[in-house]
Amino acid sequence: QTLFPDTGLFVFFGGTARNLVSDANGGVVILTGSYDPKDFRLHRLNEEGLPRWPGGVAISSPDSIFENVLTSDGASGGFVVWSKQDSNELNIYAQWIDSSGTRRYGASGTPICNANYLQQYPVVVNTGPHVAITAWNDSRHTNPIQYWSVYGAKLRENGIVSVEKKRNELP
Questions:
Q1: Of 63, 107, 69, nearest to 86 (Cα)?
Q2: What is the pLDDT of residues 18-48, one digit of tens each?
């Protein structure tokens, strides 16, 4: 007997589905969210559709979260990367939620880039168990903001962010 009925399986009330990825073990990780009130959560369903994190796990404290993206962590969890408004700037933050539903980068995530001006439109991809690479558009070298650079960083299991260089500085 399947647990996925023809009419769909209830996952979460009060938000929208933002993204969906495999949990690398037959299930899925779903990013849901709403902007009023701000509430972005990860939900994990196993291969039978049963929730592994009842109610979901908040990715951050409810502050100015924009442009969030999700990738699997390759081991039944997920990495979420987003732009956050700090004063008059947008900066890049990340959260890793592991297979048990624990926020590994603290209650508010970890800052990836808080350089001057705008950092926005992040993308993220899993590159192995508990590792992801993210990239974003960055205007720190342009004023007025009309030309963008692309920057990137590696998200690691221990929360250390590495490899932030402009494209033309890479070997």
A1: 63
A2: 899 999 999 999 999 887 667 889 999 998 8
